[in-house]
Amino acid sequence: MIIRIMGEGQFDVENVDQDLLQKYDNQVEDAVNAGNEQAARTALKALHEYVTANGKAVADDYLGSSDVVIPFVDATLAEIAELLTGEGFIPDPA
């Protein structure tokens, strides 16, 4: 799965702990659903850090699409909510 972090690039997260990735994603979704902007930003920062630290950066010349788009770390609650689906940013495992 390729995740695009707006303003930072794309990361391949195929080989990361998917349960932990989903946990971070769920924390963002829960904070947005609660209307808690500070908690949403904190959770989004944790998700960013996990993806950038554990995902593999995709080459700049990669022309494929991203599977997931995550807003920049300083996004507002409204900007975060705009990109959320009913499953957070990352689809829940089937």
General description of the model:
This protein is an alpha+beta fold. Helices cover 44% and strands 14% of the residues. It has helices at 18-33, 37-54, 77-83; strands at 2-5, 9-12, 56-57, 68-70. The protein has a four-stranded mixed sheet, covered by helices on one side. 28% of the residues are buried. The mean pLDDT is 93.
SSE layout and pairing:
Elements lengths: L1 E4 L3 E4 L5 H16 L3 H18 L1 E2 L10 E3 L6 H7 L11
Helix pairs in contact: 1-2
Q: How confident overall, as mean pLDDT?
A: 93
Shape: globular
Q: Report the helical percentage.
A: 40-55%
Q: What is the rounded distance between the termini?
A: 15 Å
Question: What is shown here, in short?
Answer:
The chain is an alpha+beta fold and 94 residues long. It has helices at residues 18-33, 37-54, 77-83; strands at residues 2-5, 9-12, 56-57, 68-70.
Give descriptors for this structure.
globular; four-stranded mixed sheet; alpha+beta; 94 residues; 44% helix
